[in-house]
Amino acid sequence: MRKTPNYNLIFGCTLTAITVSVIVLGFFWTPFDPDAMSSAEKSMAPSLKHLLGTDNFGRDILSRVMEGAGTTLSIAFLAVSIGATFGTIIGALTGYFGGTADEIIMRINDAITAFPSILLALVAVSITGGGKTNIIIVLGILFIPSFARVVRGEFAKQRDMDYVKNAKLMGVRHTRIMFVHILPNIAPVLLSAVAIGFNNAVLAEASMSFLGVGIRPTESASLGRMLLDSQAYLFSAPWQALSAGCAISILILGFSLISEGASYRPMWRPTTKRRRK
Amino acid sequence: MLDIKNLTVTFNDGRPGMAVKGINLHMEAGDTLGLVGESGSGKTVTALTIAGLIERDNATVDGEVIFEGKNLLKCTMDEMRLLQGKDIGVIFQEPMTSLDPLMKIGRQIEETVKLHFKLKAEERRNMALEVMKLVGLPEPDMTYKKYPHQLSGGQRQRAMIAAAFINHPKLLILDEPTTALDVTVQAQIIDLLKRLNEKCGVSLLFISHDLRVIKRVCKKVAVMYNGEIVEYGDTEQVFSDPQHEYTKELVAAVSARRKVNA
After folding, report:
1. CATH classification of the domain holding B15
2. How far apart are CA B52 and CA B175, in angstroms?
3. Which of A144, A161, B117, B174 has the fewest Cβ atoms within 10 angstroms?
4. Taking all residues of chain B, what is their mean pLDDT, rounded to a whole number?
5. Helix A187-210 crosses helix A61-97 at what angle (to 10 degrees)?
6. How far is CA A212 from CA A3, A70, A131, A215, in A?
7. Does residue B52 form part of some domain?
8. pLDDT for the residue A33
9. Which residues in B lie closer than 8 A to residue A162 (C-beta atoms)?
10. pLDDT(A274) > 50
11. For A7-19+59-276, CATH number?
12. Model-level ipTM above the cut of 0.85
């Protein structure tokens, strides 16, 4: 029996690989200095010299998109890492052991989830003051509940499976059961949660910067900030808004496809992998 | 070696009555004891209690389970863990789902070695390959690297037995180990268990509802009904001359089926 290839995962990975390599390139090299202004080249349309044109200060938009996407992605990466790590630990413990502690933690979880997370993030960032580190910490903490919930559900399901009971009978420690036996078995779910988390983080960072509470303009370029700055020139120089907007869309599309593809299970079964060779 | 005195188990979650009502059992090293009874008669609960898998929050357990001079019911979780997989091995009914689907067979078999002894990876591997040969898994070198779904039901049950047996435990508790298998594989697994008992001297506590299987493996049998042991004795004697009403019916049911088949 031939299986249809997992197109979502293939396209998602390709798209993400391309964007990530462009971003990584942007850490070391950009066509122009993203901050260099030039009064002679203000708001120029895309040309061979400036592939995506220049903004109202005469800065090269391609360079700024590369740098801005890098900022956005690194914030998303760190925030998701924080959220996923702590969320997984909390979810694993509560899901595996259950009981009163589980109930209490999950109700706190519900309370946090009841607020729109972007609103909480905005409030928290306004209080702590903007800046990269604060955004990462605030977003990271806000992502914990969603990961905890997903992981908890899966652990609660796996906890009663025969292989877990069997491991207990062999005298395997709880921590080992949780992280050596159960965790690999929930990988598909966890991975798609991570990909969705990436999406939310990219969007959250962009929205915060767009609303002016995120990355400070002095820190580095950021996609959300670029959207905010280009609003006034939407009709006279649409390439500014378009470049930043498209960059956000492409980033998110890549992760969405991956998350869609990761929950498509057969890719994770060893036989299918072998057959692909 | 194993002495169960007046064991009583009551569930706290509202299930009425006692699951096990004060049973007494005794096993010597090398014994094969069968525990027969219908579903809900308390035989699995008994096994789980001995194995330490009854969650103490969910059930009240009274009486004594003395294994090698130690009361298992008084053991802490950590003390229990030292025995599980080393001196007491347990094999479940469901070979299809009792192995971790994402862990290679070899690693699962040697897991208990890893937990109980400090050995090099190479030594563990050799132990695993040896026990795999012993239980009759084909091409141990190849099977070592396979995943559970690549094995047949019988092979999985052999892998389970290998995992339970790798540390040469003194007692194997088998909860319906052959029920999920087809008849030919059943016969092979039974032969394997008998061989392990005769050659290696491991005691078997064999739980089943299948009288024929019990008859083939066990020297002694205890019949459970409604949480109590209603009859206990040598297998031959119990089945040829049943005393209790329930045992009579049980034996009659099997022989009636035989007549129909013949």
Report:
1. 3.40.50.300
2. 14
3. B117
4. 87
5. 130
6. 48, 18, 11, 8
7. yes
8. 85
9. 92, 94, 97-98
10. no
11. 1.10.3720.10
12. no
